[in-house]
Design goal:
binds 3,4-dihydroxybenzoic acid, binds S-adenosyl-L-homocysteine, about 45% helix, 8 helices, about 220 residues, single chain, seven-stranded mixed sheet, binds magnesium ion, Rossmann fold
Amino acid sequence: MSKEFWTTVDRYLCATLIPADPVLDATLADSTAAGLPAINVAPNQGRMLHLIARIAGARRILEIGTLGGYSAIWLARALPADGRLVTLELSPTHAAVAQRNLARAGLDGRVEVLVGPATESLAALAAGPAAPFDLVFIDADKPGYPAYFTAALRLTRPGGVIIVDNTVRTGLVADPLCTDANVLGVRKLYELIAAEPRVTATTVQTVGSKGHDGFTLIRVE
Ligand code: SAH
Ligand code: DHB
Ligand code: MG
């Protein structure tokens, strides 16, 4: 089994289940043209985020890690007309690409892109009117995950959902000898989750066009 094979299966699944979407295609094309890395979620993962948001009835969503706005579009499309998504991005370049993509998707009125280090934006959100959130999607720098989880917990209402991307990392997360800073960030996240009585969490491993990874699904009790 290889990433090439998983990608072939992903192509079949996406072609079968996910209608053609010129707005999302243009989002990825413009992101690539602007030099952004292709580390957005896959279409079937984006749709999973969209479905979880709808199943949860989310009206206020927070995303940490915007890139070109691809996952933000999936999530924002799950919102009712008066819903709001706030998405945090360190890079002004990435944020500008995302703004254009969100405008083309007709979502710029519903989505706010906050530029700067996520820890600073999260501190500002705690004092502002945007919180509490019904759903938080954590997908920025992995060493920051422990801090983002702690902040997300504070900003999410009881019964709300936190989803964390990239929490398996080709299985390295289960290797206690691994010293990669990204893996250490995810392992620290697991320690926080395990010690936190206010959450119920699970992680599901995934294979597909993005390789072998996984996502963590958390309910705030
Ligand atoms: N959620 C996106 C992918 C995000 S990639 C999607 O699936 O479409 C991770 C993003 O996090 C990158 O754009 C990167 O610039 C941003 N990032 C990295 N460190 C950050 C930080 N400290 N604060 C906020 N964003 C950060
Ligand atoms: C990377 C980041 C991501 O959020 C992702 O989904 C895949 C890869 C990365 O930094 O390499
Ligand atoms: Mg990711």
